Amino acid sequence: MIFNDGDIIVAPATPTGGALCLVRLSGKGSIELCDRVFRGRRRLAEAATATLHYGEIVDGEEVVDDVVVSIFRAPHSYTAEESVEISAHGSRYVVERILALLVRCGARMAEAGEFTRRAFLAGRMDLSQAEAVADVIAADSHASHAVAATQMRGAYSQELEALRGQLLHITSLLELELDFSEEDVEFADRGELLSLLAHTLQRVDSLAASFALGNALKEGVTVAIAGRPNVGKSTLLNRLAGEDRAMVSEIAGTTRDTIEATANIGGVIYRFVDTAGLHATDDRLEQMGIERTAEALRKARIILWLTDKDDSSIEKDLIGYIPSEDQKIYRIITKIDLRTEDAACAWWSEANYPTIALSAKSGEGVDQLQKALQEAVDATGAYNGEVIVSNRRHHEALREAGRELEAAIAALEGGVPTDLLSEDIRQAIHQLGIITGEITTDDVLKNIFSKFCVGK
Hints:
This protein is an alpha/beta fold. It contains 17 helices and 13 strands.
């Protein structure tokens, strides 16, 4: 386990170059160290916790910058250690001078994520909450922020703790039976145990299943735009992105590689992928583009099949590229500004694929597509504080916990000896503990916190 080494650490908590920059220190002696370079109306060591102090950072008699200093005495700080935050002007030169002064006085530069790592080791948060801190910082949409904020505030941790508590109660009863094995007594009703295990498995599976949505909200919903050449794929991408991301031409095969663009629609980030037109060709470059189209389709959560005419045979050819039943598929009839007849397609209607007619060039019907995209990804639960898993590490642990619970249920139904049954349940408890950090290793912690920014 990684323990605090007692050093005073320092790092900028905000980027330089702006109007202001926050420099953060943490560790026993931080306030006294800061007093060596701070000149104000009173010494910081004499001030109460959670107070602000205006003054100057000085290097000998030279004034480096006018600053406002916040002090936090242990354990009333983010890291639970004595901490100082210096709000200075955002000049790179000024910030580097302040950092150099503090290092010269005995601090050392913090490692990536070291402030949050110390908060975790001090018990201020569990590991899932610590990871959520990074997710909140990285959030680029209302939905991704809502998912991370719910996790950071502890709703997810509380649910995991409740599940672990139930399983620990079961194992305690089973192990009590082992202590009295010679007397052949049962402290746990097998029917109640089966019901409790089934309920726990249902919730674990539900959390694991939420990862598909959580990952999409966190990373962005991948939408593949596919179809034959010259049906308006690149024009639609540009319209949805609000800029010319893809080259548009009447020449077939212009797009030979996937082109991506993002758009925020209803608080959710959508990642649109313009793909090469699907058709028979001897051109090696076009063939490579078509191969990448197939890969893009496999990875997409939503697929937009574009066609500019009512020809069901085309879609029947393309349907072979659809690999997953849980993908949402829309047939998009394009270029309606160039036609007047009804664009309905009986074949697609029978296949239960919704059809949207639009003109990417004029924008007519695009609002209907955007509405459909919002309905395909329901982020309501995230906004209402529902626990949604967005971390792949957590998802893998939940799936493993689910497998162990399934084994425990099978063992219980099959009359397996109590000691073996108890071991299956303990393995499930172990997997849940991996998520919260109650069970972890140095390598796991280093890997997690190395992905944080230095000042956090």
